[in-house]
């Protein structure tokens, strides 16, 4: 079975002084999180869409789903964890408790504040996860990347042709992801930035899915203005 996992656990601190997490801000007359869920909802491959958010926002998110999507059967809203990866583990726990978690169970994990993901990107993630076990959506780096050890002086300038910018979705065979995460040391867990790094730490291949430049993550106030423009352009 294949599950969509929408990660809405962030509080949006980089958005500035706003009254709610950024995923609940309105863009194009709808909350950002609803735009994102809709992109997954139209894909019939998903057995269930699991939306994970902070405990105090679960009820609000359920109300949004009821208002805009009117489907409380195919979409479930549950509490996320203290970190991104713990949130993903909560989704796997839900699958284990309510369905069968086996070697072929796939999760397609996606940031709730990336509402411009395409049907093609989602389909490619499903296909690559089924075939290879793990994949990450990326775009080639267009700017020169510099590395600094102390935030003051350049330590190295990597070959840009080998550099990519990570996006989401990131998709995995859920049981394998869970088993590898549980096998990590506490020190390894502390250096995690996302779920794909779990596979990398354990020496497992993560295949690249071609993303899109417009598959932006809404993080800063400027991104809201860009998002409004993109949505207007889709009308």
UniProtKB/TrEMBL annotation:
Keyword DNA-binding carried by entry: no
Domain of life: Bacteria
Pfam entry (one): IspD
Keywords, alphabetical: Cell wall biogenesis/degradation, Nucleotidyltransferase, Teichoic acid biosynthesis, Transferase
Binding site for CTP: 7-10, 81-87, 112
E.C. number: 2.7.7.40
GO molecular function, one term: D-ribitol-5-phosphate cytidylyltransferase activity
Keyword Hydrolase: no
UniProt xrefs under Gene3D superfamilies: Spore Coat Polysaccharide Biosynthesis Protein SpsA, Chain A
Enzyme class: transferase
Site residues by UniProt (Positions ribitol 5-phosphate for the nucleophilic attack): 160, 217
Record-marked site positions (Transition state stabilizer): 14, 22
Catalysed reaction, written as an equation: D-ribitol 5-phosphate + CTP + H(+) = CDP-L-ribitol + diphosphate
Entry's Gene Ontology BP terms: cell wall organization; isoprenoid biosynthetic process; teichoic acid biosynthetic process
Signal peptide range in chain numbering: none
Segments passing through the bilayer: none
UniProt family annotation: Belongs to the IspD/TarI cytidylyltransferase family. TarI subfamily.
HAMAP family: TarI (MF_02068)
Summary of the function given for this chain in its UniProt record: Catalyzes the transfer of the cytidylyl group of CTP to D-ribitol 5-phosphate.
Stored PANTHER family: 2-C-METHYL-D-ERYTHRITOL 4-PHOSPHATE CYTIDYLYLTRANSFERASE, CHLOROPLASTIC (PTHR32125), RIBITOL-5-PHOSPHATE CYTIDYLYLTRANSFERASE (PTHR32125:SF8)
Protein name according to UniProt: Ribitol-5-phosphate cytidylyltransferase
Source taxonomy: Bacteria, Bacillati, Bacillota, Clostridia, Lachnospirales
């Amino acid at each position: 079975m294949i599950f969509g996992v929408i990660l809405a656990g962030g509080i949006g601190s980089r958005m500035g002084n706003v009254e709610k997490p950024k995923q609940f801000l309105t863009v194009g007359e709808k909350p950002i999180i609803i735009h994102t869920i809709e992109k997954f909802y139209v894909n019939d491959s998903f057995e269930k869409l699991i939306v994970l958010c902070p405990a105090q926002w679960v009820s609000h998110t359920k109300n949004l789903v009821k208002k805009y999507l009117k489907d409380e059967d195919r979409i479930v809203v549950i509490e996320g964890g203290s970190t991104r990866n713990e949130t993903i583990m909560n989704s796997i726990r839900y699958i284990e408790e309510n369905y069968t978690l086996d070697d072929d169970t796939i999760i397609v994990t996606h940031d709730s504040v990336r509402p411009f993901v395409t049907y093609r990107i989602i389909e490619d993630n499903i296909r690559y996860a089924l075939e290879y076990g793990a994949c990450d959506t990326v775009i080639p780096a267009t700017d020169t990347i510099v590395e600094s050890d102390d935030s003051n002086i350049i330590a190295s300038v990597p070959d840009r042709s080998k550099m990519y910018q990570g996006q989401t979705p990131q998709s995995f065979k859920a049981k394998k992801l869970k088993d590898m995460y549980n096998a990590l040391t506490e020190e390894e867990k502390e250096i995690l930035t996302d779920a794909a790094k779990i596979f990398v730490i354990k020496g497992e291949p993560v295949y690249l899915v071609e993303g899109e430049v417009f598959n932006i993550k809404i993080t800063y106030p400027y991104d809201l203005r860009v998002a409004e423009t993109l949505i207007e352009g889709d009308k």
